[in-house]
Amino acid sequence: MLVLLGCKNFKCSDLKSEVNQTNYLQNRLPLREMPYLELPPGAIRPKSWLKEQLQRMADGMTGHLDEIYPQVLGPSNGWLGGDGDGWERGPYWVDGLLPLAYILDDADLKAKVSPWVEWTLTHQTEDGYIGPVPFNTKPEIMPGVQRSNRKDWWPKMVMLKVLQQHYNATGDERVIKVLTNYFRYQLKELPNRPLDDLTFWANRRGADNLQVVYWLYNITGDTFLLDLGEIIHEQTYP
């Protein structure tokens, strides 16, 4: 995460960046004012040693994991609409690949990220659910492939960060609509199906969910997000 010092006295218009300046958000009331503001992916370009390290990631496993691990990250992945792996591994990979793609301004990496983001944005259900569709019957066990617990809250939290980063990098307004609908879905579902409904991971990592809830609140001002934040906080392991 890149941050900017002295944001209280900083004017976003002073930053020489091609990134949409509405991304430089301060907390709305009643949230506490932030001492730092996050810079969107691509606002700062790496040079020298750091650029070399990032390029090594792009040239190595990070940039080619779909080719190395196709049984999990190939077209059968549930986050691409397939009937294969549908839990955390795909979102985890894209969560690192997306910022790398935009920091390096690498067209090939952006092309690898795009199908994951597009499928998630275009396959939201009417009730607001995002992610792999659960199987009607118990899925066949495939060694090394996580096919169960598709409705678990935890993998969604990773994809929420992906969508947040995608918006920060591109300004894609579809993200705002999809996240708003998903968080309304959470507000309705969590009282009856809490974070630890299927696994304990979301119960331990609720802050990952919460940070995107408050980020969206700072953009839209929708007060239902504050109510959702309270529920997520209460359901998260202290």
TrEMBL record:
Keywords: Hydrolase. The keyword Ubl conjugation does not apply. InterPro entries: 6-hairpin_glycosidase_sf, Beta-AFase-like_GH127_cat. Residues 92-235 form the Non-reducing end beta-L-arabinofuranosidase-like GH127 catalytic domain. The lineage of its organism: Bacteria, Pseudomonadati, Bacteroidota, Flavobacteriia, Flavobacteriales. This is Glycoside hydrolase family 127 protein. GO terms for molecular function: hydrolase activity. Signal peptide: none annotated. It comes from the Bacteria. It comes from Maribacter litopenaei. The keyword Hydrolase applies. It holds the Pfam family Beta-AFase-like_GH127_cat.
